[in-house]
Amino acid sequence: MSFESIDLAPLQRHSNPAETALTRRIDLTTLRLFIAVCDEQNLTRAAQREGIAASAVSKRMNDFELAFGVTLFKRLSKGMALTPAGEALLHHARVTLLNVEKIAVELSEYS
After folding, report:
1. Largest Cα–Cα distance in the chain?
2. Which H/E stretch holds residue 29?
3. What's the distance, Cα to Cα, between the start and end of the chain in Å?
4. How far apart, in whole angstroms, are the C-alpha atoms of residue 73 and residue 65?
5. Residue 75 — φ and ψ, nearest 5°?
6. What is the C-alpha to C-alpha distance for residues 94 and 30, in angstroms, rounded to an integer?
């Protein structure tokens, strides 16, 4: 069972349009890539770890920053460092992926 994309529409009934647009841009693959970049502190190593082209990771991270309207990383000559906004997102990204794993484990009991 794949949890790469979750339909958040039922949770968005009471959200404003800006919040709804943002949550539709968040997907589990991008969260996983974001965590990889944070862990590796290097976009190329994160891309290798996740088996995806570095240019694709770079595009996803840039799009992610645009979706949130914040800078998540400081781009350095030898890697990437988190901004305070990136630190906050990292916590939520880890919790979100952990919760998705818990969903998979719980639902596997029914298969």
Report:
1. 49
2. helix 28-40
3. 11
4. 9
5. -85, 115
6. 12
pLDDT one digit per residue (tens) for the chain, 111 residues: 444 544 545 544 555 665 555 666 789 999 999 999 999 999 999 999 999 999 999 999 999 999 889 999 999 998 999 999 999 999 999 999 999 999 999 999 988
Q: Whose structure tokens read 């349009």?
A: 17
Instruction: State both tokens at 110.
Output: 């029914």
What Cα–Cα distance (Å) separates residue 8 from each residue in 11, 23, 27?
A: 5, 7, 10
* Separation of alpha carbons 27 and 34, rounded Å: 11
* Structure-block tokens of residue 30: 């991008």
Helix (H) / strand (E) containing 34: helix 28-40
Its pTM stands at: 0.78
